[in-house]
Design brief:
Layout: H1 2-15, H2 21-44, E1 51-55, H3 56-73, E2 77-83, E3 87-91, H4 92-113, E4 119-126, E5 131-138, H5 145-151, H6 167-177, E6 181-187, E7 191-199
C-alpha cells in the first residue's frame, strides 16, 4: 500500500511538470522494491511445496552443471566434493532455488572483491547421525562479525548489505521448511562459508 501511495504521489508531481532526475531515481527505486516484494511473497508461500524423496547427490551435480556457464563467464573456478549418495525428503525445486540463491550471493561477493583468484568450493558429506551436510565456501568480499550477526537474524534490517540481499529470506525460509539448520561464518576480505544441515531420508523409519 505504501508503494502505491508513493507511486500516486509521483504521478501527481509528473502531471504538474515537477518531473526531474530525483523523481526518476525514486521511480527506479520503487520498481526494484516491487520486484523484491514478489520474491519475498513467493518465498513466504509454502502452499505450493511438493515434497518427495529424491537423490541429493544427483540434484547437487545438476545444479553445479547448470551453473557452469555463468561461473565461467565471470572466471570463477568451482570445486565439488561429494561423499554422500543417499536421499532426502523435500521439495526438490525449492532446494534447487535455495542453492542457486546461495551461488548468486557468492558470485556477487566474489565480483565485489574483484580479485584475480575467484573460487567457490562445494562440499556435500553425510555423518553418522544420518544428516546431510552441505557447505558452500567462497573467497569473496566477506563480512564483519557484526554483519554476520545481522544477516543471521531472518527478516531483520541488514543495514543495506548488498551481498546477502533479499535472497537470504528465501534461503532461510526453504531451510526452515525442510527442518534444516544453517550457519554462516565469514571474514572480511577473505570469504564466506554457508553450512546447511538436512536430515537424510531413511526408508526404514520413513523420515
Amino acid at each position: 500500500k505504501l508503494i502505491n501511495y508513493v507511486e500516486t504521489f509521483i504521478e501527481k508531481l509528473v502531471n504538474n511538470r515537477y518531473n526531474n532526475k530525483d523523481i526518476d531515481k525514486i521511480k527506479r527505486y520503487l520498481r526494484d522494491e516491487k520486484k523484491k516484494n514478489v520474491v519475498i511473497k513467493d518465498s513466504l508461500d509454502s502452499s505450493k511445496n511438493n515434497f518427495e524423496v529424491f537423490n541429493f547427490e544427483k540434484l547437487v551435480e545438476k545444479i553445479v552443471r547448470n551453473s557452469q556457464k555463468i561461473l565461467k563467464k565471470y572466471g570463477i573456478n568451482t570445486s565439488l566434493f561429494i561423499d554422500f549418495s543417499g536421499n532426502m525428503y523435500g521439495d526438490k525445486k525449492r532446494i534447487y532455488q535455495m542453492f542457486i540463491q546461495i551461488l548468486r550471493n557468492s558470485i556477487n561477493a566474489i565480483l565485489t572483491r574483484n580479485k584475480l583468484d575467484k573460487k567457490i568450493n562445494i562440499v556435500v558429506v553425510g555423518d553418522k547421525n544420518h544428516r546431510i551436510i552441505l557447505e558452500i565456501i567462497d573467497n569473496g568480499v566477506g563480512m564483519t562479525e557484526e554483519e554476520v550477526k545481522a544477516v543471521m537474524r531472518p527478516y531483520s534490517d541488514t543495514k543495506g548489505n548488498s551481498i546477502m540481499g533479499t535472497g537470504l529470506i528465501t534461503i532461510y525460509k526453504i531451510v526452515k521448511e525442510h527442518n534444516g539448520l544453517m550457519t554462516i561464518s565469514s571474514e572480511l576480505d577473505v570469504g564466506t562459508k554457508i553450512r546447511i544441515i538436512f536430515n537424510e531420508y531413511r526408508e526404514e523409519t520413513n523420515q
